[in-house]
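Recall the central idea of this unit: under ordinary conditions, the amino acid sequence of a chain determines the structure it adopts. In this exercise we apply that idea directly, starting from the sequence alone.
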Amino acid sequence: MGELPFFRAHTALHPDHLWIWEKAVYVDENQRTWLPVTIELESSLQVLMRQEDVPLGEPVCPSQLGPYLLPVMWQLYPGRRYRGSDSSFWRIVYHIEFGDTEDMLLEQMADPEYE
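Accordingly, the structure predicted from this sequence is:
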């Protein structure tokens, strides 16, 4: 049998900010694009943010988005969490880089004082 390749994932630096650019595309402070995948569970809301280079169209105003489940902006806070523009807090479950793929899983927190 042949040897299996050795893969190594490592933690990545968290973006300081993520701003919505257009529906389903966020941009960080380094102009990298992030694509959200929303995961609705019985007890929580999660979002998998995948850093993927996509061509950017024209930016949209939040009012042009219509009803949107996710905040239009996230800001990194101490304690491995983000605060959304809607005052929600999101815990960083993991943030890894594996080859050319970078994923960050965020989970909405019920109340930051109890987490």
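The chain has a mean pLDDT of 88.
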